[in-house]
Q: What sequence folds into this?
């Protein structure tokens, strides 16, 4: 698929599925890692697991508090 | 994606969400305190503490522990003897009016694991955490209630999947994390999309493991008729012996069979988790994962001989492993706190979703799908 920027200069680029799902996929991997690693290991790993599970929470708060876009 | 396909997914998302949302909100609200049920129980109820003894004090003989418990549960019979993960110095004896009675109505006698002294027999039925638990698991409606909530959980899973499908085309025009300030409706739509998409994996895992948990009673029934009856086939026509042999000897025998494992609980002969003639000693491993899975040893309650010991079938193991993934109780306090935050985020997704449906219906604002179409040529 070619970029639509050349043919329609005024139109903002329509994002491909790869771009749209890049962040959700990374967040999903972090969540999955957190869920599983706390299950198979203890101690320090519990903290790392909790931190990676906190990634979606932190992102939601960050984007919510960011000055709104129009 | 074709407009018609998109419209179909939109329909699926709308209806699966609408049907399950109120119940899912109930799950999120009651689930929140349940994450901290242990802490809440300690805070709200004074239990008798076990004696303060030096570490390494050997455990008391289990026959003494049992006698001590039954001395305070006159007219009742023991169903299970349980070592609690959170309270290693306490042994719980679960007692009911008869061995055939419904174990979910059992009382628990707490006994000091090292002195065999009776601690207390708390009435937890009126407890806040118990009320939350019942509302969360079956809404006080027994097995039908459980299965109904399981169905709602399945709809929730479908709602999430259809939400992902709709998210793709919708986000072609927006950067990840866009929250526009164009009035409440748009703002809440963006928040619904943002929070929904970051919580996908957690919500899918907790949602689906919750569904699996609603099948627990059925899974146990299948195990009873399957593996358990195979293991006790030779005792098919026997009845529960009137005089039981030593429970300590039964646990010792199971330990000898599985020296690397720790006893988790013992099911008494005739209870739902054992044969009529056997103590079923359920052993667990010591790593975080293997401590969640169990292996029973069936000990003849009259002779004290080992009859059989097998790994549980995959469907019981699936149930056991799905439990921590639903409860979030396997990574200490930090994990519980994150679990609670994700629970709150899920509530926001549910509430904004409900609001969006209501507001759109009222103002007849067209669906995002038609907006997508309208904004295609020029922006």
A:
């Amino acid at each position: 698929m070619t970029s639509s920027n050349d043919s329609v200069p005024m139109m903002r680029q329509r994002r491909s599925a790869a771009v749209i799902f890049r962040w959700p996929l990374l967040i999903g991997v972090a969540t999955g890692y957190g869920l599983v690693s706390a299950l198979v290991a203890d101690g320090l790993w519990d903290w790392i697991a909790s931190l990676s599970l906190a990634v979606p929470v932190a992102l939601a708060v960050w984007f919510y508090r960011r000055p709104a876009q129009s | 994606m074709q407009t018609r396909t998109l419209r179909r997914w939109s329909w699926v998302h709308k209806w699966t969400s609408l049907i399950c949302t109120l119940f899912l909100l109930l799950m999120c609200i009651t689930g929140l305190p349940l994450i901290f049920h242990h802490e809440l129980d300690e805070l709200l109820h004074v239990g008798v503490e076990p004696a303060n003894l030096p570490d390494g004090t050997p455990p008391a003989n289990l026959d003494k522990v049992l006698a001590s418990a039954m001395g305070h549960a006159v007219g009742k019979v023991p169903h299970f003897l349980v070592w609690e993960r959170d309270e290693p110095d306490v042994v719980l004896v679960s007692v009911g009016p008869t061995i055939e009675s419904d174990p979910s109505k059992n009382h628990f006698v707490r006994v000091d694991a090292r002195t065999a002294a009776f601690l207390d027999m708390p009435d937890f039925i009126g407890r806040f955490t118990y009320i939350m638990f019942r509302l969360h698991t079956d809404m006080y409606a027994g097995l039908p209630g459980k299965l109904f909530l399981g169905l709602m959980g399945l709809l929730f899973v479908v709602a999430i999947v259809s939400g992902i499908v709709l998210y793709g085309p919708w986000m072609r025009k927006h950067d990840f994390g866009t929250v526009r300030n164009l009035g409440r409706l748009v703002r809440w739509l963006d928040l619904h999309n943002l929070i929904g998409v970051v919580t996908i994996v957690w919500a899918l895992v907790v949602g689906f493991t919750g569904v699996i948990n609603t099948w627990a009673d059925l899974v146990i029934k299948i195990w009873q008729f399957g593996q358990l009856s195979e293991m006790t086939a030779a005792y098919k026509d026997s009845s529960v012996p009137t005089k039981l042999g030593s429970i300590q000897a039964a646990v010792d025998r199971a330990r000898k069979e599985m020296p690397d494992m720790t006893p988790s609980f013992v099911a008494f002969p005739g209870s739902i988790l054992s044969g009529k003639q056997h103590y079923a000693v359920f052993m667990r491993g010591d790593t975080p994962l293997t401590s969640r899975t169990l292996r029973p040893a069936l000990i003849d309650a009259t002779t004290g001989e080992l009859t059989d010991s097998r790994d549980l079938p995959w469907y019981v193991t699936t149930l056991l492993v799905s439990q921590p993934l639903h409860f979030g109780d396997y990574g200490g306090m930090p994990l519980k706190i994150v679990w609670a935050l994700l629970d709150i985020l899920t509530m926001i997704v549910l509430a904004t979703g409900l609001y969006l449906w209501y507001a759109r219906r009222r103002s007849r604002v067209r669906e995002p799908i038609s907006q997508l179409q309208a904004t295609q040529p020029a922006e």
About this structure: The beta strands of chain B are 77-83, 90-96, 107-112, 118-120, 262-267, 278-284, 294-300, 306-309. Residues 3-38+132-214+333-374 of chain B form one domain. Residues 3-35 of chain B form the longest helix (33 residues).
